[in-house]
Amino acid sequence: MAKNKDAISANSGTHNVLASGTKLIGEITSEEDFRVDGIIEGNIFCKGKIIVGPTSTIIGNIECTNIELLGNVTGNILCSNTVVLRASCIISGDLKTEVIEIEPGAKFEGKCSTYYQQKQLEPQME
After folding, report:
1. 8-17, 78-87, 112-121: lowest mean pLDDT where?
2. Which of 23, 36, 44, 105 has its CA 20 to 30 A from that of 16?
3. In what helix (H) or strand (E) does residue 2 lie, and over which residues does it extend?
């Protein structure tokens, strides 16, 4: 049994999925890639790539390394590398990133800054 557990934990390239028809209320923290096809009401913190599928809705802020948006997001996005807005996405919130790609037809309402500082991800100490 220990061999199977070791093999699973050593597997790289894993990712998480929130399937269509699933609703989650609360904060999500992930070390790996994350795909959302359901509904999330809460903030997402991901050290990998997030894919927001075409059937998804996210109401909350997102912090990640990379993100590809095909669905709906209401909230701010802080991305340390690349944001891709696909034609089917509807975004309402501010974006901060290094690189942004926008397909014709993508809907975006908010401010966009392509000047990103890593220190913004660190918790603020008072």
Report:
1. 8-17
2. 105
3. helix 2-10
Best CA proximity match to 105, nearest among 70, 77, 76: 70
Q: How far apart are CA 33 and CA 36, in angstroms?
A: 10
Q: What is the pTM of this model?
A: 0.80
Q: Which residue has the tokens 């890639």?
A: 33
| Residue ranges per structural domain of the chain | 14-110
Q: How many CB atoms lie within 10 A of CB 92?
A: 14
Angle (nearest 5°) at CA 120 between 119 and 124: 90
Torsions phi, psi for 10 (to 5 deg): -85, -10
Side-by-side strand order, sheet with 23-25: 23-25, 39-41, 57-59, 72-74, 90-92, 107-109
**Residue 82 and residue 108: Cα distance in Å, rounded?**
16
pLDDT digit string (tens) for 28-75?
Answer: 999 999 999 999 999 999 999 999 999 999 999 999 999 999 999 999
Helix (H) / strand (E) containing 5: helix 2-10
